[in-house]
Fold:
Amino acid sequence: MCIRDRLYNSGKFPYVLTLITTEKVQIRQNALEACRQFINKKLDEEINGQYFFRIIPFTHHIQRENKMLSGAGADRMQTGMQLSFGKTVAKAAILKKNGEIMSVAVATPKSVSFVRHVLKQIKPKLPCKTKVVYELKK
Structure:
């Protein structure tokens, strides 16, 4: 168990901000990874080691694509939708409405406003409408 896990479980980070989706959505793994890298970088620069960050959904849904040829003579080279299983393109997490995407727990009220600002900065990287929920853990 990591040191931050122990600190989080013991209550050293009482201020929890959670990013949730306001609609049903599939979020691809590369979008979650881009958000994770951006948040980790910003939090390490500002509040080095004084936070607990967690990505909640697991990317278990495999997205596939049946590539089709186009142009003259393409009809002789493929079978269309017959036996079209497709090749793996990406993995995604399927979230329902009000599903949690990620949460950040911090130790001080001053860092809450910074984390809220960082979570608002990653909204363009996600394919859904989101909102930030604030909670004080006792």
Observations:
- The chain is about 30% helix and 30% strand.
- The chain has a mean pLDDT of 88.
- Helices lie at 3-10, 29-46, 109-121.
- The radius of gyration is 20 Å.
